[in-house]
Amino acid sequence: MKPELRKIIRSQKKALGAEALVQMSLPTVERVTANPEYQKAGRVMLYYPLWDEVDTRPLITRALDDGKRVILPTVVGDDIIPVEVTRQTVWVKGPFDIMEPVAERYNEDIDFILVPGVAFDMNLNRLGRGKGYYDRFLSQHADAYRLGICFGFQVLPEIPTEPFDFKMNELLVI
């Protein structure tokens, strides 16, 4: 069931195209920064988007402008390794063609995590890309506020879940 759902969403993204998804992402900065949990957080984990995810690049800049400590995920082996970014951070293309910051591992608490997904449902379940990266990472940061983010067509009536799947605290539909 999960592979079929991923395939459906992937075809919808391809039909729209990368440029349309960037345009659809324009309200992201305003919508995320208005969230009370983001506002009170000092340490926020965002992500550098793949072509088919909600574009968070302007949000990374805004979070730095807001004086937040900004953490981004990098992938090492089968794990997400968080790193802190600044305006001086150097970026390189990492696994999966994602731009990743070159920085030391961040080992402190995280207050707020913006979580991408292939799809979500209204019960705050998340369907990822199938490798479990975020589920493993979120289980290690269970106290952080988890805001799932997606486009409207990525919200499904129900997503099948496994015991290791990690729910969001809230869903933001862009």
Outline the structure in words.
The mean pLDDT is 95. Strand 1, helix 5 and strand 2 (69-76) form a beta-alpha-beta unit. Strands 3-2-1-6-9-11 form a 6-stranded mixed beta sheet, with helices on both faces. The relative contact order is 0.19. Helix content is 28%, strand content 27%. The chain is α/β, with parallel strands linked by helices and 174 residues long.
Compact summary:
This protein is of the alpha/beta class and 174 residues long.
Largest sheet: 6 strands, mixed
Total strands: 11
Radius of gyration: 15 Å
Low-confidence stretches are: none
Q: What's the number of helices?
A: 6
Residue share in helices?
25-40%
Q: Tell me the strand percentage band.
A: 25-35%
- Overall 3D form: globular
Mean pLDDT: 95
CA-to-CA gap between the ends? 25 Å
Summarize this structure as a short list of keywords or feature phrases.
single chain, about 170 residues, alpha/beta, six-stranded mixed sheet, three-stranded mixed sheet, 6 helices, 11 strands, about 30% helix, about 25% strand
Q: Would you spell out the secondary-structure blueprint of this structure?
A:
Layout: H1 2-16, H2 18-24, H3 28-33, H4 36-40, E1 43-45, H5 57-65, E2 69-76, E3 79-85, E4 90-93, E5 99-102, E6 112-115, E7 119-121, E8 126-127, H6 133-139, E9 145-150, E10 155-156, E11 170-173
Parallel strand pairs: 1-2, 1-6, 6-9, 7-10, 9-11
Antiparallel strand pairs: 2-3, 4-5, 7-8
